[in-house]
Specification:
2 domains; 329 residues; 15 strands; 34% helix; single chain; 6-stranded parallel beta sheet; Rossmann fold; alpha/beta; 9-stranded mixed beta sheet; Dihydrodipicolinate Reductase, domain 2
């Protein structure tokens, strides 16, 4: 049996603990600067809360870093120096400097490190990817993601999430658009040009953007758009790709859930009901299954630290370029 250490015991840690347990992994240790939170999670999964990270890292094979993104570099460093496989929640960091340091640490020590872009592992994405790879819609000309609904800070309380903590603030363009960027880039190819704009609606927290729009250009010549909002009372999402031969989209009446698959080509058109419900946790389960398989087989995960850094670069270009496109690195 593999043993895991969870660093960070917030809401996302409970999802990962549940998924890892289903996969037969022991939640051996939990660490959090709020010791009571660590104890609650550890006890729920028959593990131990710890304040001795070095000792805990020495006893496990997997280290899951689930802290706010501005607090991760030192934990990555401790894990890779001990030669432990590392899973990092997205976004991999809050700054490009931290992202570059994480890349350096993981690559210098040649340690498997996965960034948790869970959307890739959900059922809807898997169906869409299969259709695209089979050539059913032809060469991609446009990729689209629209995702809106009540998010952190919507009800006026800034205590609901670390995202709206003045010491940890992380807006939508960095924290949540990482999902959309990776989703589209993994299907349509590398993004090479970005033009974006963001807007926040919480006056007392000007650093917190909760609305974002981006225009994208892909290496293939395809174009794309991302529209997202945490300040919308109405919830809805649609994402997909348009190709020369047809189109494929996922749609849902929620900011996250996909309940309809829409496919249209020159030969056929159909819709299917889906049960791709975000809170059911399939994405978390399957991403950890992939990570564990990579660790056991000695392979690097499909979404590693280079992918995480590229996504963060694009987020910063959306934040920093109001009217002019900029070539992505």
């Amino acid at each position: 049996m593999l043993n895991a250490l969870l660093i960070g015991a917030g809401g996302i840690a409970w999802r990962h603990a549940e998924s890892l347990t289903k996969l037969g992994v022991s939640i051996t240790y939990v660490y959090d600067i709020q010791t009571e939170r660590a104890k609650q999670l550890a006890e729920a999964y028959h593990g131990q809360a710890t304040e001795n990270l070095e000792a805990a890292i020495a006893e496990v094979q997997l280290v899951y870093i689930l802290t706010p993104p501005s607090k991760r570099v030192k934990y990555v460093e401790m894990a890779v120096k001990a030669r432990k496989a590392v899973f990092i929640e997205k976004p991999m960091a809050a700054t490009l400097e931290d992202a570059e340091e994480i890349v350096r640490l993981c690559e210098n020590h040649r340690i498997p490190c996965m960034v948790g872009f869970t959307q890739r592992f959900r059922p809807g994405y898997q169906i869409m990817q299969k259709i695209i790879r089979a050539g059913e819609i032809g060469e991609i000309t446009q990729a689209v993601s629209l995702r809106i609904g009540p998010g952190p800070g919507f009800k006026g309380s800034l205590a609901d999430s670390w995202r709206t903590d003045k010491n940890l603030v992380c807006g939508m363009a960095i924290e949540s658009l990482s999902h959309d960027i990776d989703f589209l880039q993994s299907l349509a190819g590398n993004i090479t040009e970005v033009c974006g704009a963001v807007k926040g609606t919480i006056e007392e927290l000007p650093a917190f953007d909760n609305n974002a729009d981006a225009l994208l250009k892909f290496e293939s010549g395809a174009i794309g758009t991302i529209t997202a909002s945490w300040s919308s009372a109405a919830a809805y999402n649609i994402k997909g790709v348009i190709g020369e031969k047809g189109s494929v989209f996922l749609q849902g009446d929620d900011i996250w859930d996909s309940t309809r698959l829409i496919v249209a080509t020159k030969e056929k058109a159909y819709e299917e009901e889906l049960k791709d419900i975000f809170n059911e946790g399939t994405g978390y389960l399957e991403e950890s299954r992939h990570f564990i398989e990579c660790v056991r087989m000695g392979r690097m995960p499909v979404c590693g630290v280079r992918t995480g850094k590229k996504v963060l670069e694009i987020s910063y270009q959306i934040l920093g370029n109001k009217t002019e496109g900029q070539t992505a690195k």
